[in-house]
């Protein structure tokens, strides 16, 4: 798949304007060159990671496609950890239903750019890192620029945007960059690793970029058959395990989940789970960035797609002081 070169203008500055322009990628550069504050604010990392590893994080670039339920919080976590450059892309605007889970969603940001408002929040945390903002989202014009130079990409694109997801993965593969895809389902999360030589998103979804664009267009025009096909495709690709928590057979979690998807086109997300899933992903991003640091660690490896890691905070086992699992 050939990815076109972006024709957008890159504007470097220290402060964002009030509203984004559609032809501009905004690059917020550090306000200060003195690194003493950076090392002070990241000091509590040291012990679990080394000073040399902190420098690896400072030189790393992480791209986050989608700043919704997980992407915005992930960006803030990685900024706090000391990642030197964070790129965020999202074409959507905040609405009231986002407030239950999204990092920069407040009453005052309703109707405003998710990418822009997330960047403002990030800048308020610390202004000593680089933040690249793509308010156009992942498009044929932005995708190559967004990917190029990244150490790792996190795919947190809105669930039904199958065309943008394929475009992101195809470009990353062509540029030799790996991607994490992590989601929140009930009280659980699934983490997938896509490598340049492994299973592709096209294979996972069972469709090409062109067919995904056509299907998305039909669904946007009210074609319920197309919407159901997208839903089934997404569930198959990113939700191999849909948990069931209710004991009643009259109304199940799975039935309620599917009903909202098919009747409203909305994915049910409980407010408490995105922070859990985001922390899980952020830890794995950090460990990925430090994988060649020379520090040996005993950690569970992430099997590349079609393998994955699964964590359910509601159905885990407890460990007693006597050593018994229950």
Can you put this structure into words, describing what you see?
A nine-stranded mixed sheet has the order 1-2-5-4-3-6-7-8-9, sandwiched between helices. It is globular. α3 packs across α11, α6 packs antiparallel against α8 and α8 crosses α9. It is built from eleven helices and nine strands. With 326 residues, it is of the alpha/beta class. The chain is 36% helix and 13% strand. The termini are far apart.
Assign an overall shape: globular
Q: What low-confidence regions span 5 or more consecutive residues with pLDDT below 50?
A: 1-5
**Strand count, sense and closure of the main sheet?**
9 strands, mixed
- Quote the average pLDDT: 91
Please tally the β strands and state the result: 9
Strand content range: 5-15%
Which sequence of SSEs, written as H and E, runs from N to C? EEHHEHEHEHEHEEHHHHHE
Question: Main traits of this protein?
Answer:
globular, 36% helix, 11 helices, 326 residues, alpha/beta
Task: Give a brief outline of the structure.
With about 325 residues, the protein is of the alpha/beta class. It is built from eleven helices and nine strands.
Topology of this structure?
Blueprint: E1 9-13, E2 24-28, H1 36-41, H2 51-58, E3 61-65, H3 71-81, E4 85-89, H4 114-125, E5 130-134, H5 143-147, E6 152-155, H6 162-174, E7 179-182, E8 188-194, H7 201-205, H8 209-220, H9 224-238, H10 253-264, H11 273-289, E9 309-312
Parallel strand pairs: 1-2, 3-4, 3-6, 4-5, 6-7
Antiparallel strand pairs: 2-5, 7-8, 8-9
Helix pairs in contact: 3-4, 3-11, 6-8, 8-9
């Amino acid at each position: 798949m050939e990815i076109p070169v972006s024709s957008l203008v890159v504007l470097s500055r220290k402060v964002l304007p009030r509203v984004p322009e559609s032809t501009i990628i905004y690059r917020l550069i550090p306000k200060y060159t003195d690194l003493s504050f950076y090392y002070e604010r990241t000091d509590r990392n040291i012990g679990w990671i080394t000073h040399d590893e902190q420098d690896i994080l400072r030189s790393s670039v992480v791209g986050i496609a989608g700043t919704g339920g997980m992407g915005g919080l992930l960006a803030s976590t990685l900024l706090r950890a000391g990642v030197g450059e964070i790129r965020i892309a999202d074409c959507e605007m905040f609405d009231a239903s986002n407030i239950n889970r999204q990092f920069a969603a407040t009453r005052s940001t309703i109707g405003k750019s998710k990418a822009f408002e997330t960047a403002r929040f990030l800048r308020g945390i610390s202004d000593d890192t680089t933040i690249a903002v793509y308010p156009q989202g992942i498009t044929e014009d932005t995708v190559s620029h967004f990917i190029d130079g990244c150490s790792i990409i996190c795919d947190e694109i809105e669930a039904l945007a199958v065309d943008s997801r394929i475009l992101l993965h195809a470009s990353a593969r062509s540029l030799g960059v790996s991607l994490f895809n992590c989601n929140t389902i009930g009280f659980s999360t699934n983490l997938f690793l896509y490598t340049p030589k492994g299973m592709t998103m096209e294979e996972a979804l069972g469709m090409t970029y062109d067919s995904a664009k056509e299907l998305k267009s039909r669904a946007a025009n009210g074609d319920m058959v197309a919407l159901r096909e997208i839903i089934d495709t997404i569930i198959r690709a990113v939700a191999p395990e849909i948990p069931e928590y209710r004991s009643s057979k009259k109304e199940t979690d799975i039935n309620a989940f599917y009903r909202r998807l098919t009747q409203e086109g909305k994915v049910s997300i409980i407010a408490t789970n995105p922070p859990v899933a985001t922390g899980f992903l952020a830890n794995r991003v950090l460990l990925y960035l430090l994988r060649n640091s020379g520090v040996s660690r005993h950690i569970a490896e992430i099997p590349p797609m079609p393998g994955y890691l699964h964590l359910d905070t509601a159905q885990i086992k407890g460990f007693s002081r006597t050593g018994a699992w229950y």
